[in-house]
Amino acid sequence: MTGSGSSECVCNVNSGDTAWMLTSSLLVLGMMPALGFFEAGLSSRKNAVSILTQITSGMALLQMLWHMVGFTLSFGPDQGGFIGNFDHAFFMHLSATECSCFAEGIPALLFAIFEAMFALIAPLLMTGAFVGHMRFFFFLLFIVLWEVLVYYPVAHWVWGGGWLYQLGVHDFAGGIVLHTTAGSSSLAVALALGRRADYAEHHGEETPHNIPLSNIGAALLWMGWYGFNGGSAFGANAVAVNAVATTTIASCGASLIWLICAVLRHRSVDSLVLFNGAIAGLAGITPCSGYVSPAWATLIATVLGLISYGSVWLLKEKLKIDDALDVSSLHGITGMVGSMLVGIMASTKVNPDGPSGWIESGDGTVFGYQVLAVVVVAAWSMFWTFLIILGALRISKWRGAHWVAASTRKQLAGLDKSDHHCFAYAADFIPGPGDFAGVSPILRRRSAREPDEPRHFYDVRRRRPQETDPLVVNEVHLSTDNLHDFDESP
């Protein structure tokens, strides 16, 4: 993806490129609910609804923000190399038939829609860093502030004709703009919020409550990534084909590296290891998928797999940083490495409009610019993230309220119950005195309609399982705090 601040462009809008970009936009849109499934399955069952609610509400909120001011600040006419102006607020002056200078083969309005998908998913990636920790309403405030202060300026710097673009920085599909910003900010959030209340019990690695759901989400993410990278060619062309090929090679190669590392360390492997490796490869190949050849993608996959696996070991096991789902390692570190590798392995034979890397040209200038961009963007992202979180924590402490990070009691109970008053599974509903106080109205009405049917929960008043499926009883009972009270007598 290249930025352009020029007003002189030759429009060549055609149905083939338009169809491909519409398809790519839908593929990337599908990545957001897929991200919710992936993270919900990886977390404990007491936070599953919380994650899905954050993802869904974030999609709606960020889309409207992009429509109102996001696109114009990111891709509007350049203002001093730092930000765009308000010429395209509310998608004004964006034609459904004429192109923009950023993508000459598709309508300007379609370009804005496609770019919206990147702006939406960037802050949503960070939800994996604070699973079960950040309160819902502060989350909404946080992602709005983060978009305005971090994503929109960086998108303009790199893609919208800003100072990094003018310097000669290249980012094909978001290694700098998306993965570096979200990954470094995730690390900042984890450091600012500190460890979760039950960190000592699982050392930052909660037991996934639904591996099949997580696998479904990861598979849909993998599929959507082809729209992410292939669509960044802005047409059904040779660059898109190359991006799809390198994306496939890097994801599969990194997945195999994780398999090998897991077998060597633990003598076993599971599907989550393979999918985590694939996501690391996908994130790392994103900035260079349209610039490097498939042959180089094999080496890149090896580097990404080793670095991401080592980063998880370092940050979580050694430094004890509570990045819940390893966003900083799977997205941040890999995005940074992939962005820097553009300056080494890129070739104009692959993409005539792209850079010529150090190996091809014998000149390390592009590599130097890529490193500079990664360092500046990571520092910018972490600075604003720290400022937002620590400032909010200070205000929260002053007001004597837990509206930023959930209290210990709420963390142990789960944000599904404390923030959303509902449960991912009806079997988790354990009534007490007053039975339905604070329970979802839907569950309340359902239980009222079916008073005589067996209840699918552990009855704490009778101290014995109700008449239901033993597998459900055992699963639910193990998720309660009353394990020692369980009576197996008939």
Give the topology:
Blueprint (H helix, E strand, L loop, with lengths): L14 H28 L5 H28 L2 E2 L3 E2 L23 H18 L10 H23 L4 H5 L7 H19 L5 H4 L8 H20 L7 H29 L4 H15 L8 H25 L8 H19 L12 H4 L3 H35 L8 H6 L1 H6 L20 H9 L8 E2 L4 E2 L4 H9 L12
Antiparallel strand pairs: 1-2, 3-4
Can you characterise this structure?
This protein is mainly alpha-helical and 490 residues long. The protein is built from 18 helices and 4 strands. Strand 1 and strand 2 (83-84) form a beta hairpin. It starts with 14 loop residues before the first helix and ends in a 12-residue tail after the last helix. Residues 433-439 and 443-490 have low confidence and may be disordered.
Attribute tags:
single chain, 490 residues, globular, mainly alpha
What's the helical proportion of residues?
Answer: 55-70%
In spatial order, strands of the major sheet run: 1-2
**Based on helices, strands and strand pairing, what is the structural class?**
mainly alpha
Poorly predicted regions: 433-439, 443-490
Short précis:
The chain has about 500 residues and is mainly α.
